[in-house]
Design brief:
binds zinc ion; single chain; 106 residues; 3-stranded antiparallel β-sheet; 12% strand; 4 helices; alpha+beta; 27% helix
């Protein structure tokens, strides 16, 4: 994963040492979450809106993720009847990482 710029050093440390401090940075949709998983493949987590260390409002691009994908790939939606998830095979490569928000400077 590319280095991200966190709101404060303690949050950056939490992300860098996520096995010790259970805070995840979800790069694809750019949000932070407290990890509740207790087994491999367990994806349970609680999204956090503010940094627990400094109180800064944290980013959340979940809505922007789908809006930008609809704008960039309108045919993706017109050919699918089901609701897409970020794990679907049809998700374009750019939207499988943080490239989409980095390219748009979001
Ligand atoms: Zn912080």
């Amino acid at each position: 994963m590319k280095k991200i710029v966190c709101c404060c050093r303690r949050m950056q440390r939490a992300i860098d040492t996520k096995n010790k401090i259970p805070i995840n940075f979800e790069e694809v949709q750019k949000f932070f979450a407290i990890d509740e998983s207790d087994a491999p493949g367990d994806l349970r987590q609680y999204e956090i809106r503010h940094c627990p260390f400094c109180g800064e409002t944290l980013p959340d691009l979940k809505d922007a993720y789908w809006q930008e994908m609809r704008k960039s790939y309108p045919n993706l939606y017109s050919t699918k009847d089901k609701v897409l998830t970020i794990y679907d095979d049809v998700i374009p490569k750019e939207f499988r990482s943080g490239s989409w928000w980095r390219n748009r400077k979001l």
